[in-house]
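Re: your question about Transferase

S., sorry for the slow reply, the queue was backed up all week. Below is exactly what I fed in.
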Amino acid sequence: MRLPGSVAEVRASESGPHVGAFFDLDGTLVAGFTGVIMTQDRLRRRQMSAGEFIGMVQAGLNHQLGRSEFEDLIGKGARMLRGSSVDDVDELAERLFVQKVVGRIYPEMRELVRAHMARGHTVVLSSSALTVQVEPVARFLGINNVLSNKFETDDDGLITGEVQRPIIWGPGKARAVQEFASANGIDLSKSYFYADGDEDVALMYLVGNPRPTNPAGKMAAVAAKRGWPILRFSSRSGASPASQLRTVAGIASMVPIAAGALGVGLLTRNRRTGVNFFTSTFGRTLLDIVGIDLQVVGRENLTAQRPAVFIFNHRNQADPLIAGRLVSDNFTSVGKKELENDPIVGTLGKIMDAAFIDRDDPQKAIEGLKKVEDLARKGLSILIAPEGTRLDTTEVGAFKKGPFRIAMSVGIPVVPIVIRNAEVIAARDSSTFNPGAVDVAVYPPISVDDWTHDNLPERIEEIRQLYLDTLKEWPHGELKLPDLYTRAKPAKKAAKRKAPAKKSAAPKGRP
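Result:
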């Protein structure tokens, strides 16, 4: 639906550089305040005294309570860096961005930025923060236009402790946006502005498409009165107590479900039946308790041919749980050696006969993959992330050859599972999951009958391109199959040869 404030609305909007898309930084693109991150880092490194830190906190509170102007607050921050070189401060900002800030960027806003760029709009990061806070985020998002405050420097490139005038804040920020629009042929009546702060209310009136984002106070009140569409995101605002409780409850369900699985295995005298009960029940229960809704295109391809190598793109710790929930039963997985001692992942892996690969020991890695191949020959499917590690990005990393070599060795097809929006559920290293909807596309099995060691890199790249194309243009109905399906021998024809292997998928007599 093309609701105001949605990516769909932007994709259907008028195209061209005369349409501006102005984004605020703190609280809008990034959860929290980047200035606080820099201040905390200086305190931790003893580059500022406790008194100076308290002074900064007090200045911030005075500004929030209306007892001082923004100029006083930003000036105090600049004076703390007096005598520092701009290069050193830029290096600090880049380090903090990688360590602290990149994980706070709202994935929903990242999608909106990309949607505006795809329409050819002039995208601007307009913020009252300093360039050292703003520019790393702008570079990461590919935003070339930045309106922000800047340090004054002397002839030696050292910070004087002052900020260049006029200060970009409130009316000053509105003037900066108007001047930029005039100089670049932007029609503000057709433009968009995303911001959260009360000081940006005046700027909202200037554009034809005001988009208050995570607003509070005056901004929220004016938005409600004027009927402006309000965008609210919680995926990077820190886990709410409710999300933490739901996650704990979901993970805790592992214990009774494992007990039930043990009972099923003993009653049937079939270990695999018990494992299947656990994997299918735990995946469903965990996602239901957390409130994760899977919107799947191509669900029928999950059972079109078994066994198979199911591959998925990896953003966070929710991805393997989502993929496992879909594959459901009669599968095992592959993970890195470090996860073997994880109380959750390690336990799950042991139950499922997963292989934990030691990447630093090629010989042990080969032995681990051989174990997986043997299980596949007995009828178990393999679930694996071909990127090898989590990537906090909407792109797709390089695919490793391991999953595809397993498919070739055993003679089973590859089934691509493309996951979108999982970064909304959790950040890269977060162990707490937020409720939300995740889009999943499952493509038909891809036969590896005509694959060879010579054409393997080409075949892998074709499948990776399938992921890139799908994420760029998401299927909202029937899957559009790329050329690799028309060229390859249909995997279903090979199923007749592989079917007998399923008979040994559930060996009896192993409770």
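DSSP finds 21 helices and 14 strands in the chain. Residues 271-290 form the longest helix (20 residues).

Happy to talk it through on Thursday.
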